From TrEMBL:
Pfam families, A to Z: GIIM, RVT_1
Protein family per UniProt: Belongs to the bacterial reverse transcriptase family.
Protein name as annotated: Reverse transcriptase domain-containing protein
Highest taxon in the source lineage: Bacteria
PROSITE patterns reported for this sequence: RT_POL
Length: 432
């Protein structure tokens, strides 16, 4: 049995135990975290996620030059001797579409591997508890599943939508309350200590260390275990919304949540429910972003969620005039794809055509796959827009490669790259 199979077999047993006994606290888990096959599987998954180097500058290539087995053996020894200490998290800033930046925390590779091992061990326990309405960063669930549920709720007549946004959620999760929630299921003090150390790890921000032991809020957005911890904390919120005979259920309100992005949907959302919502979030020490949170009547105006636009449109193809729920890539999502293509072509002026085709395919394939939820989304128009943009940008790209127009420009760069070098034509690419 390979490493992955052994890990999955153990996860199934944990999940079944947690599902059968809702109040059971798991107390012998640390010894699993330091098992060689768990750490090998963790290394494999961390490497597949790629990611930049942390504060020590070490990359996966550096690890393999050093010796992967030796590197993992040293981790086992540190965990066995309980001498492991996480290094500071490197803070980087990612540009957002609105011109602002999103802070990401990048742990060093060693910390990522141990976080992944802990995640592999404890995730099945909490998966047994999580609500069906939660979709983000969970096994065998995706943004497409959340989009499908929203469309279904709209078709059921739940067309009043509270489009919510939490203010800096990952940065404001209170450590004390989070650890208490983790402790409801995990009683292994060594695992809890690891999680606490990661929460308290200092942050290297522009060469200056901040945070540390005195820090009482936040989990780095970018850490391997952070999405699971974020879901554990918001699970209490999910339960409150879905509670039978609770305020929300009495009003027929349903929630669809993807990490810290969520919507409430009902035929009508009364102010009393929103007041209760604010009090609930206040008790959890969280806050709504008032500027971005709003109620939308989807029958009259569109709304965006997870990069998709939901809109009631006229069906122009049928004989009878009727309406249908159109779900397509949002304008902002289309702009992001074009921005990536433009940036790539701006800084890669001397690559062979095959490399250009391969690199552009990496951008377009992921984008198209994300928006190709079968039977739910209609990305045809957005695909045509992307094809038109690619065609124009490639023509200008090859025109400026030299003072004289190059052969690819004269021949029609887009079609040549498609026919000879395998460039994806967005209008003809099937999901896969």
């Amino acid at each position: 049995m390979g490493d992955e199979e052994r890990v999955r077999d153990f996860q199934r047993k944990l999940y079944q135990k947690a599902k059968q006994e809702e109040t059971f606290r798991f107390y012998v888990l640390y010894d699993k975290v330091r098992l060689p096959h768990f750490l090998r599987e963790s290394y494999k998954r961390c490497k597949a996620n790629r990611g930049s180097a942390g504060v020590d500058g070490m990359t996966f290539k550096d690890v393999e030059m050093y010796g992967t087995d030796k590197f993992l053996t040293e981790i086992v020894e540190e965990l066995e001797n309980k001498t492991y200490k996480p290094q500071p998290v490197l803070r980087v800033y990612i540009p957002k579409a609105d011109g602002k930046t999103r802070p990401l925390g990048i742990p060093v590779i060693k910390d990522r591997i141990i976080q992944m091992a802990v995640k592999l061990v404890i995730e099945p326990i909490f998966e047994a508890d999580f609500e069906e309405s939660s979709y983000g960063f969970r096994p065998r669930r995706s943004a497409g599943d959340a989009v499908r549920q929203i469309k279904q709720k709209l078709q059921e007549g739940k067309c009043e939508v509270f489009d919510a946004d939490l203010s800096a959620y990952f940065d404001t999760i209170p450590h004390k309350e989070l650890l208490q929630l983790v402790g409801k299921r995990i009683s292994d003090k060594n695992v809890l200590h690891l999680i606490k150390m990661w929460l308290k790890a200092p942050v290297m921000d522009n060469g200056r260390l901040t945070g540390g032991k005195k820090n009482k809020l936040g989990t780095p957005q970018g850490g391997v275990i952070s999405p699971l911890l974020a879901n554990i904390y918001l699970h209490e919120f999910d339960k409150a919304v879905n509670r039978e005979k609770g305020v929300f259920c009495q009003c027929g309100i349903k929630i669809i949540r993807y990490a810290d992005d969520w919507v409430l949907m009902a035929k009508r959302i009364p102010q009393s429910a929103l007041d209760y919502l604010n009090n609930l979030l206040k008790s959890m020490k969280l806050k709504l972003n008032e500027d971005k949170s709003k109620i939308v009547n989807a029958l009259e105006e569109s709304f965006d969620f997870l990069g998709h636009t939901f809109r009631l449109d006229d069906d122009v193809f049928g004989r009878r005039k009727r309406k249908y729920w159109n779900v397509e890539p949002s304008s902002r999502s289309q702009m992001k794809a074009r921005d990536k293509i433009r940036e790539y072509l701006r800084y890669n002026g001397h690559k062979p055509p095959q490399d250009v085709a391969n690199d552009l395919n990496t951008i377009t394939r992921g984008w198209i796959n994300y928006f190709s939820t079968k039977g739910v989304t209609y990305p045809g128009k957005a695909k045509r827009n992307l094809r038109y943009y690619l065609r124009g940008k490639l023509m200008r790209y090859y025109k400026r490669k030299s003072q004289r127009k190059c052969k690819l420009y004269n021949q029609g760069a887009f079609m040549v790259l498609v026919s000879r070098y395998g460039l994806i034509d967005p209008t003809k690419y099937a999901f896969g």
